[in-house]
Amino acid sequence: MGIAERKEREKEDVRRKILDAAHDLFETRGYENVTMRAVADAIEYSPTTIYHHFANKEDLVQALCFADFEQLSQAMGSRPLPENPIERIRTLGHAYATFGLANPNHYRFMFMTSGDWKKHAHENDTPPARSYAFLRDAVVDAMEQGYFEKGDVDLIAQILWSGLHGVVSLLITFKPEQFPCVPPRPGLIEASVETTLRGLLVPRKEK
Asked: Are 76 and 176 within 8 A, CB to CB?
């Protein structure tokens, strides 16, 4: 291994240590209570070292969240998706929920943490935009093939996402005994997706 390659690997190792430490601190202390110095102290580096990798806390948070969104995109696109757009939406919903339940800390950080970094989330070719595109493209196809009425693509995509997000957020935030009256019922995620889809599907005419 050459000197340049070794230095680059060492740089990436330090960056990963910073990201891992910051992730833990944001989760345990909350976004507002974490400083760049606290991150530096956690990995026993100087704050100057942190600033060599990230311009400020918002830059650090954005890097963390974008890395998490890359993992979400990989989870949703890890296998061939169905050609049928409705089946594709079901498959994407299952992958999305599975990711959220398996990575509750990451999910909370991605979707339930404030910060100015989110103003960049809608920009083209960012990890959040790419993960959203899976669902949006399926909605476009569903409209073009007559499964959904043609209209505001993003409104329909947001309806589908927000319904599923609500269920996942409850499941990772509430303990089973905190649900009203009874614990979350088996099949809650699937039933939520199906109920939303039924409200959006255009009735198929009998031949």
From this structure: no
